[in-house]
Amino acid sequence: MVMFSAGDTAWVLVCTLLVLIMSIPAVAFFYGGLSKRKNVLNTIFLTFIAFSIISVIWVIFGYQFAFGADINGLIGAPTNFFLQGIGLEDLNGTIPTLLFVMFQCAFAGLTCAIMSGALVGRMRTKAWVIFVPLWACLVYVPIAHWVWGGGWLMQMGALDFAGGAVVHINSGISALAVALVLGKRQDTSLIPHNLGYAVLGAALLWFGWMGFNGGSGLAADGLAANAIIVSNVAAAMGLIVWTVIDTYVVGKPTVLGAISGAVAGLVGITPAAGFVDVPGALVIGAVAPIISYFAIYYLKPKLGYDDALDVWGIHGMSGVWGAIATGIFAVPTIGGVAGLIAGNPEQVVIQIISVIATMIYSFAISYVLAKVLDKAMGGIRVESHEEVGGLDSNLHKESAYNFN
């Protein structure tokens, strides 16, 4: 009989707060610092409003459809709307169900906040506010059910400990789809206006990620400890490798490259954190920045898409690598599932299927949503003069820096 655990509950409470740090101040500072000075407030606003909208949707019906009883592998049964019927004593494993709801709410909000980075400087606020709830209902909730809520990918045996497919591939490919609908910015150069903000955001992301991955086993145990260790070492390896690449390519290390490498390493290890050991994490963390660097500096210019803050380049591409790498490096002594190296090549095939399914579905629905909104609203992109003058002054009538 499953019993309530005060230790597990305390741990997941802490991890939930850590993910909240990632969802709001971390992403806001990271993206805000990377954006142009004239758009910093709008960039921060996109993350805050996205998280707020998702939080409301999640407790009204989002959680229920994502984690309700499975219906044909596609969606959860809609029960407990507004969380009615879920009592204080109800448990999900050894923790209160309400705590599990909030933990997952933070993941959903973070995913949407991450997506906003590709769109900064050119999307109408009204369009974003309408897009977010539609995307949550039609993209995030179904994929969360497929992978974590008992859906067809979970039934197939796809491994995603903390959100390689659900969070990072999903946000990355969706961001790319909307960016394609929006078109290129008039000025595609993007020198961070305040790298200090970005460093602070990256540091908070690194810190919060320990709860993001460490809490995904929903218990205060050895698996949580392993998840934290492999997450930290993957981030460190990612930072080191990107710094080496920068030194070789441009002749000097850069702070922007260092924090980008750390985030790429964290993204890569996210789906694998509950299934791999330290050697596997070192490889995952080392390869992730190489893939993201290639995507940002070679693939993006060649294909010509305008992913402003490289959401697809870092979250999407490193997320794809991490999901597939999980099937390569999973060891049965950690998560109970063997990967390719441990003698189970079939797991790699399952992981590839989950990656392809997530990418196709997320891209298609996000692109169609953006296109429909673009037609219905007479355009989801800001006016030319607003883009040139800056969204802070034109859309919000505010300035981030008043020195009078």
Question: Could you provide a short overview of the structure?
Answer:
This protein has about 400 residues and is mainly α. The chain has helices spanning about 5-35, 40-65, 95-115, 125-150, 150-155, 165-180, 195-215, 220-250, 255-270, 280-305, 310-330, 330-335, 345-375, 385-390, 390-395, and strands at about 70, 75, 90, 95.
Assembly state? single chain
Largest sheet, strands/sense/barrel: 2 strands, antiparallel
Overall geometric form: globular
| Poorly predicted regions | none
Q: Kindly state the percentage of residues in helix.
A: 55-70%
> How many extended strands?
4
What series of H and E elements makes up the topology? HHEEEEHHHHHHHHHHHHH
List the helices and strands and how they pair.
Blueprint: H1 6-34, H2 40-67, E1 70-71, E2 75-76, E3 91-92, E4 95-96, H3 97-115, H4 125-148, H5 152-156, H6 164-182, H7 195-214, H8 222-250, H9 255-269, H10 278-303, H11 311-329, H12 332-335, H13 346-376, H14 384-389, H15 391-396
Antiparallel strand pairs: 1-2, 3-4
Helix pairs in contact: 1-2, 1-3, 1-7, 2-3, 2-4, 3-6, 4-6, 4-13, 6-11, 6-13, 7-8, 7-9, 8-9, 8-10, 9-10, 9-11, 10-11, 11-13
Could you characterize what this model shows?
There is one protein chain. The protein has 404 residues and is mainly alpha-helical. It contains 15 helices and four strands. The chain has helices at residues 6-34, 40-67, 97-115, 125-148, 152-156, 164-182, 195-214, 222-250, 255-269, 278-303, 311-329, 332-335, 346-376, 384-389, 391-396; strands spanning 70-71, 75-76, 91-92, 95-96. It has a two-stranded antiparallel sheet. Helix 4 packs antiparallel against helix 13 (346-376) and helix 11 packs antiparallel against helix 13 (346-376). The longest helix is centred in the last third of the chain and has 31 residues, at 346-376.
